[in-house]
Design brief:
The complex is a heterodimer.
Chain A lengths: L3 E3 L2 E4 L5 E7 L8 E6 L6 E6 L5 E3 L7 E6 L2 E6 L8 E9 L2 E4 L3 E5 L1
Parallel strand pairs in A: 2-11
Antiparallel strand pairs in A: 1-3, 3-8, 4-5, 4-9, 5-6, 7-8, 9-10, 9-11
Chain B lengths: L2 E5 L2 E3 L5 E8 L7 E7 L5 E7 L6 E3 L7 E6 L4 E6 L8 E9 L1 E5 L3 E5 L2
Parallel strand pairs in B: 2-11
Antiparallel strand pairs in B: 1-3, 3-8, 4-5, 4-9, 5-6, 7-8, 9-10, 9-11
């Protein structure tokens, strides 16, 4: 079963860009993942599905400021022109053997 | 517009039972697998259970196996989670989620509190 590793926290300034990382465990570097955003006190929101090739498909209404990329076992979520509403927890997700797996989440602070 | 609306949460004593429901709309419910995902206070997301579109395949996390039962009624566009033998560690917000290999839609969640 894959394990998804995320940094516990990240910070960046308003109007800047930030790149969050989700790392797949050994033997699972080709897996597709999803990125989800959870603003304080709200339900998670699906952002995108991201393939190992770097190709991604965003959910409905997700701003163009959000993009995805991949390198080996690493899956990235890049947020450009950071806004205050981007301050949230970000989770990656994948699946294997009929099990959904979530990363521990990254808490993004917008300074 | 896809909508998933959970209900049935509340306060229950340890050892008690609760049944959660999720009403789905805005898509062909019978064509999708569905999941329950929970989030304990201040913690991350934890997958609980999955059910295939026709209920042929059902899976549970080890933490709930033997105590929780997932089911669905495609005629009513509804998903359910029967929770028995509840423990304090089951306290969480429970989310209904549509499965498209990964989760692509989430409900707003319903809070389950297990406490004496």
């Amino acid at each position: 079963q894959p394990v998804l590793t995320q940094s516990s926290s990240a910070s960046a300034s308003l109007g800047s860009s930030v790149k969050l990382t989700c790392t797949l465990s050994s033997g699972h570097s080709s897996y597709i993942i999803a990125w989800h955003q959870q603003q304080p006190g709200k339900a998670p929101r699906y952002l995108m599905k991201l393939e190992g090739s770097g190709s991604y498909n965003k959910g409905s209404g997700v701003p163009d400021r959000f993009s995805g990329s991949s390198s080996g076992a690493d899956r990235y979520l890049t947020i450009s022109n950071l806004q205050s509403e981007d301050e949230a927890d970000y989770y990656c997700e994948t699946w294997d053997s009929n099990t959904q797996v979530f990363g521990g989440g990254t808490k993004l602070t917008v300074l | 517009e896809v909508q998933l609306v959970e209900s049935g949460g509340g306060l229950v004593k340890p050892g008690g039972s609760l049944r959660l429901s999720c009403a789905a709309s805005g898509f062909t419910f019978s064509s999708y697998s569905m999941n329950w995902v929970r989030q304990a206070p201040g913690k991350g997301l934890e997958w609980v259970s999955s059910i295939s579109s026709s209920s042929s395949y059902i899976y549970y996390a080890d933490s709930v196996k033997g105590r929780f039962t997932i089911s669905r009624d495609n005629a009513k566009n509804s998903l359910y989670l029967q929770m028995n033998s509840l423990r304090a560690e089951d306290t969480a917000v429970y989310y209904c989620a549509r499965d498209f290999e990964v989760t692509d839609y989430w409900g707003q969640g319903t809070l389950v509190t297990v406490s004496s």
